[in-house]
Amino acid sequence: MLGAGRVRVRDAAPGWLGAWLERASPWIFLAPGAAIVLLFSLFPLVLSLYFSLVRLEFAPGGFRLAFVGLDNYAKLIVGVDREEFVGVLAGPSPAGWAAWGLAAAGLGWWLARSARTVSGRGLLARAALAAVSAAGVWLAVRTLAPHGRPGSLVVTLIYVAVGVGAEYVLGLGLALLCAQRIPGRRFFRVVFLLPMMITPVGVAYLFRMLTDTSKGPFYPLWKALGLVNFSWVNDPWGARAAVLVGDIWQWTPFMFIVLLAALESQSTEPVEAAVADGASAWQVFRHITFPAILPVSSTLVLIRMIEAFKIVDLPNVLTSGGPGTATESLTLHAYVIWRALDIGGSAAIAYLLLLIVTVAAVSYVHLVHRRAVGAA
Amino acid sequence: MRWSRVTAVRVLAVLASLVLAAAVVPPSPAPGAAPRSFAGVTVNIVTFTGPQIAEPLQRHGPEFQKMTGARINVITVPFSDLYQKILTDFATRTNSYDAIVFDPQWMGDYVSAGYLEDLTGRVRADPTLQWDDILPYFRNFSATYNGRVYTIPLDGDVQMVYYRSDLLARDGLKPPATWADYLAIAQRYNGRDLNGDGKPDYGSCVAMKRSAQSYWMFLSVVAPYLQSKGTSQGAFFDPRTMRPLMDNQAVAAALDVYHAMLKDGPPEQLNMDVGDTRGLFTSGRCALSVDWGDIGTLATDPKTSKVNGKVGSVITPGSRMVLDRDTGKLVPCTTQTCPYAIGGVNHAPFAAFGGWSCAINKAARPQVKDAAFAFCAYVSAPPRSRVDVTLGITGFNPYRRSHFGLDLWVKSGMTRPMAESYIGAIRQSLQSPNMVLDLRIPQNAYYEGVVLDTALAEFLAGQLTAAQTMKQIEDGWNKKTDELGRAKMLGAYRASLSITR
Amino acid sequence: MTRRHARPRPIPAAARVATYLALGTWTFVVLFPLYWLAVTSLKNPIDVFSGPLYVPFVDFRPTLSAWRYIFVDLRNDTLRPYANTVIVATVSSVIALVAGSAAAYGLARFPYRPRVGAILLFAGSLAVAVVALSLNVPWPAAALGAAALGAGAWRAARARFRRAASNEDIAFWMISQRILPPVAVVIPVYVLFQRLHLLDTRTALVITYVASNLPIVVWLMRDYFRSLPVELEECAAVDGASRYRIFWSIVLPPSAPGLVATFLFVLVFAWNEYLFALFLTSARAQTLPLTIAAQNATRGPQWWYMSVLILIMIVPVIAMAVALERYMARGLLVGAVKG
Predict the structure, then answer these.
(1) Which chains are adjacent to chain B, needing at least 3 Cβ pairs under 8 Å?
(2) DSSP states of B185-247 as a string?
(3) Is B37 helix (H, G, I), strand (E, B) or coil?
């Protein structure tokens, strides 16, 4: 308690007002923020749910919303947009069977293990989550099989998983390097932030310039590799990789800046003590640094995951979702039909996205985030 | 690019030539001759962020204000979102725009919802507009919906084929008359060095990027197979039943052509929009391209072009076989099946997009409507438009008889043979009685921009076979038509073709 | 008490080389695309399309015509959006940071047990008010009516509401507001601001950005506040300091790195937002991302103009980052508890 004596404070304001202010302070801290979010979010949330159940029609002088029930959803899951949204299913390849078996076994083991520690509603929720995950893996396995084709749903999941993972690892690595006391680190810090500062539309156009294999800067490299007549835009995985590279380039700085701040506000004594005890750098990281930044890491991954599900500008500008529909994300799918006035259809996609992300985020918060925060 | 000295000098030259021309041609009465006073009136006009289209509006605004007192406030919105933005504004009755300069293809939505002012009486009453100077296609189809006039054309859009006249002349080849010819030429030049930089270049560059202009390019290919009996026959649906014309031998043949174009083009063609193909063509890297009138003016500008004087233009290639709509099979061209054929080849130039046009918001105040109409008429009237269509910056392409004077084009920097070929191709296309009108039914953005565009992208990417592609388009269109009401959509389709019987 | 640094051991030469190699590589990865922007902004269209040209004066003759177009020809059409962007982004980020970190502090330190029923009632009365407003009921009447309705229902039913939400639930609710993609909510938000007669104003954008960025502030700052030791605050409370003073003089200073990082992040978000800016503005309040997107029109992307705009758009944010960078430095941390 060394610092306590140094803090000089004035007495709280006297009188009933002061007392009330003090008593109500928790609510006064929370209320403005909560009120802003509530006031602003409620109306759009409800209205767009309503939109997802209607079809927009123009009527003289204005417009009409014709109620169509769940038709907009049905179109995506079983109707004309099924191939674009869900994908084309095929018999799984042997590797697919293996992956599915592995995933199913893993989920089963996890469920069995949790049965011992949790019960009742918690277990039910976990069983539901396991079922949803198993279905997701099954869908991925079947659409990614040789004659299948992933729809915007699976493509989005790929973007999220690969993109957020790579961004976290890169961001953490760079933050660790920059947290060292080395000359020039202030330069690196500012430079590494740059990609995040460009408007996403701008980044997308920038990457369209860079990935152009006939007049872009990497043409000589392409030529040297003998790929002059090959273009990544003609290959589904090449195009998806290009989208991911752009996404990683832009959002690694987000991970970097927050992790760096976390590393720097970490108290130094445990590290010093460990170093004095002869711990290796890896041990220090594994047992001291990483647990200390775990809560922030967990928050970061959650926020980035939520944002990454909404990826739209990069695939839109880079390939417009092409070749075919190979790079189309859910939000881009929603955007494409929204531009063509299918407000209902696009709201339906958005609500399905909301459902998926909510399930993912709730599970994440319950299973990972609270544990990460608790561990710190 | 906008007011560089070269352009300024060119504008001055054109203006000077106009003054000279005015001395010979009896002057048309300027709208300012009997000015109605619009003092204190502000007209908000929305269009996309240019410089094209917006630039001439911004340039003529102050002139117009000086004459009439009306202030012209040009509001610009990114092109990709213009349609949605205007529609949202009108549908929610925000009405922040008094006039719009838009794509008349969107009329299906705007007119049927009653957002646009009927201009039929006004265009007849305004002598300065010289309505009859505008080509019949634009007067009777593009500006008209269900027999009423709703827009003043400011631009003429039609797709043509551009070729490298130097190469074809050197090798003694004729410009393509059919799509088969087109493919033969593309194949011949693909992989050869066409601009002398030692690198292999491409036979044909066509925009095939998804959510861009690719479906218009495809429709240009399919048009001569589908429509042979004049504009009012329509090329998208059977105008008696609203059955789509997208699953038959004609479309199959066009898909073959379209797929072959992919082979003889740049490796990234799948991801190219018109910006890319124009850039490649004007830097001399393509032997052929399909495009609107823009390549003509871009090829003349030294900042954008290495091929000035080496570009020829021709009406979009045609077909010797056309669709028999009853059987879904292709039949040879005869005087009955192809009344407008030239040398046995049925041409159907496609007025893709339709050409930027000016329309007036029905909800605007009367005086504002008058001022808005006067301004659009002022911009469209020959004294202005004759010059504007020759300037690359305006993005305006010819749409009046008086735009076909060669001298103006030569003065703008085009070589005379190129101007002859360019104007010749535009004139031949626009005067064709078999021009294909772009789809203008409500929600055409969904029919073309979503269903057709997605199916074509999947076809090019190898996700769908030709048969699957055709079926997907038909199913998607039928589903939408049923949703919106078949009878209503049939009425709208017939209205767009101005079929009144 | 003197603070020592985390890694007092001298860094071995090999590690140092490896570090610089890694940092250098990433620096190249970051800077090369920006270099390409700079080069492209100096090109004529023909130079862009004839193949890759890298070095001005060597490979091609540079021209300032793109810069001239943006600054001379467009002039006010560049500067007005620029000013709007600066104002909207700064104001909204400051508000979001203030309101958000207060809420985050609350969530990190006090247990809240709002009854679920009360929240639902509140939301319900709000919905009633909104519906009333959209039916053109005057707003005081709508507000009073909804409040009366809500209060009445609460009195009638308060005993039945037992379930309460926790802090975690509140935080999750906040972040969940970011899940819906903008394309799904832009029309409702447009209608909202149309009713309020705020279309094409900077106010509308500020409100939108505060609301959409606040959850991020709450989440990031909550973690920072939680990682601070509470002992200091408890001591101050014993000394009689008010909660607000504790927040201001004891909690905020050591959170400077987090505050700066968070501020930069929400600033960038507001700075670069496109879709809401597109719909909520039409002329006066347009921001720069619109200008950039607008460079892709009927003639395809105008790479040279786009490059200029992207470059001038990141300059102020870089300046901000440079100015704030030192606050992220560890040396400024004060108020350590355990010495």
Answers:
(1) A, C
(2) HHHHHTTS-SSSSSS--EEEE----TTTTHHHHHHHHHHHHH--S-GGG-SSB-TTT--BS-S
(3) coil
Q: Is the pLDDT of residue B421 over 70?
A: yes
**In what side-by-side order are the strands of the sheet with B42-48?**
B71-77, B42-48, B99-102, B357-360, B152-153
Record: contact C46-B94, CB cut-off 8 A: no
Percent helix, strand and coil across chain B, each to the nearest 5: 50, 15, 40
- Are C46 and B283 an interchain contact pair (Cβ–Cβ within 8 Å)? yes
Average pLDDT value for residue range A125-142: 89
**Amino acid identity of A51?**
F
Structure-model confidence comparison of residues B226 and B198, the more confident one: B226
Closest CA–CA distance from residue C201 to any residue of chain B (Å): 13
Looking up residue C304, the CATH number of its domain turns out to be 1.10.3720.10
State yes or no: pLDDT of B29 exceeds 50.
no
| B379: pLDDT strictly greater than 90 | yes
SS3 C193: helix
Task: For residue B12, count CB atoms less than 10 angstroms from its CB and return exposed for 0-12, middle for 13-18, buried for 19 or more.
Answer: exposed
What's the longest Cα–Cα distance across chain B?
Answer: 63
**List of E strands, chain A:** 54-59, 62-67, 87-88, 149-150
Q: Which domains does chain B have, with CATH numbers?
A: 5-157+354-414 (3.40.190.10), 160-352+431-437 (3.40.190.10)
Determine, yes or no, domain membership for C125: no
Residue C71: both structure tokens together? 């600054």
Task: Name, in order, each residue with C-beta under 8 angstroms of A15's C-beta and a sequence gap of 6 or more.
Answer: none
For residue C274, being part of any structural domain is answered with yes
Instruction: Report the domain count for chain C.
Output: 1
**Cβ contact, residue pair A206, C310, below 8 Å:** yes
CA-based nearest residue to B145, from B478, B441, B482, B376: B441
Question: What pLDDT shows up at residue B146?
Answer: 85
- What tokens were used for A265? 């506000």
Can you tell me the mean pLDDT for A257-286?
85
Q: Which CATH number fits domain A39-89+148-375: 3.40.50.300, 3.40.47.10, 1.10.240.10, 1.10.3720.10?
A: 1.10.3720.10
ipTM score assigned to the predicted complex? 0.85
The Cα–Cα gap between B5 and A330 comes to 48
pLDDT of residue B168: 95
- Check residue A10 and give its pLDDT: 46
Domain span at residue C102 reads: 64-111+199-330
Distance of CA B43 to the CA centre of its chain: 26
| B303 inside 8 A of chain C by CB | yes
Closest by Cα among C302, C294, C262, C264 to C277: C294
How many angstroms separate the CA atoms of B429 and A106, rounded? 66
Q: Note whether A265 contacts C255, CB cutoff 8 Å.
A: yes
The residue extents of the domains of chain A are: 39-89+148-375
Contacts of B499 (CB under 8 A, 6+ apart): B232, B239
Question: Does residue C172 lie within any of the structural domains?
Answer: no
Terminal alpha carbon distance of chain B: 50
pLDDT at B3: 45
Q: Provide, rounded to the nearest whole percent, the portion of chain C with pLDDT above 90.
A: 31
Could you tell me if B244 and B474 are in contact, meaning their C-beta atoms sit under 8 angstroms apart?
yes
| CA distance linking residue C41 with residue C74, whole number of Å | 16
| pLDDT for the residue B395 | 86
Q: What is the pLDDT of residues A83-115, one digit of tens each?
A: 889 888 888 888 889 999 999 999 999 999 888
Element (H, E) at B100: strand B99-102
pLDDT above 50 (res B23): no
Name residues 23-42 of chain B within 8 A of A (Cβ): none
Q: Which of A192-206, B2-16, C140-154 has the lowest mean pLDDT?
A: B2-16
The helix/strand/coil state of C335 is coil
